[in-house]
Amino acid sequence: MILMRRAVAIMIWNVLLWTVGVLALVPATFPVAAATRTIEPDPVPMVMIPAGPFKMGSEDGKGREDERPQRDIYLDTFAIDQVEVTNERYLAFVKATGHRNPPNPYGSGFLHDATGIEQLPVVQVTWYDAKAYCAWAKKRLPTEAEWEKAARGTDGRLYPWGNDPPSPKRANFDREWEGEKTMHPVGALSAGDSPYGVKDMSGNAREWVEDWYDPDYYKHAPDRNPKGPAKGVVRSIRGGSWHSPMWDIGVASRGRGGFALQTHGTGFRCAKSVEGPDGAK
């Protein structure tokens, strides 16, 4: 009996040593919040945003009235594209589905060729265009709350990188139109990344989100997984663009636009619910 107990103890000890050895080989490059995955047919990295609360909106006396009050909002786990949808990716969608081409912001007519502008964010897309793309990619548009949490993390910071003022190394903003030189390739300004490693959440291209826009929504929105008003007239836009002034590219800043709005400063990125114990139900 004693010999059997010793044998079992030795076996358990060896298993523990093997387990520790295997875990030591697993790279710890990314925290859980920054884990990425891709989804066909749109193989762009998606960043996993963990479940939990965050501070949404602006404090009293700061920002615009439609950004207040600031509240603690709980979100289930979700994933969001690490970068904005590019011209290259969008034209792949157009080719695969027969969806209409967007107007060409760099010339006349419609955009048919992404040569030289492959990695610039697609713009001149309507809310319906953005929604159709995300559906094709087996994703969806992010909610305002999801977009803001991915941009600012949980500490209530003013910008994706923290509270320091914007600079050209962190964001592409407050510029005049210079054709193909206006916007940066997606992900080019790593100094402006959010706490989760999501890129270009301030400036470059503004981004459509799912929600109807309501200037008073924050006053009565649910504290858990808010999805915006049940109805409205215009949709919300977040993030500011290459043309936005410094005060309009903060993570709490809200914009809005009609369904048919197409501007050379508005694009989008996609999100996806995550099934599981701590994910969206």
TrEMBL record:
Q: Which domain of life is it from?
A: Bacteria
Q: Care to name a GO molecular-function term for this sequence? A: formylglycine-generating oxidase activity
Q: Which residues form the Sulfatase-modifying factor enzyme-like domain?
A: 46-272
**From what organism does this protein derive?**
Nitrospira tepida
Q: Which SUPFAM superfamilies match?
A: C-type lectin-like
Name of this chain's protein: FGE-sulfatase domain-containing protein
User: Which InterPro entries does the record associate with it?
Assistant: CTDL_fold (IPR016187), Sulfatase_Mod_Factor_Kinase (IPR051043), SUMF_dom (IPR005532), SUMF_sf (IPR042095)
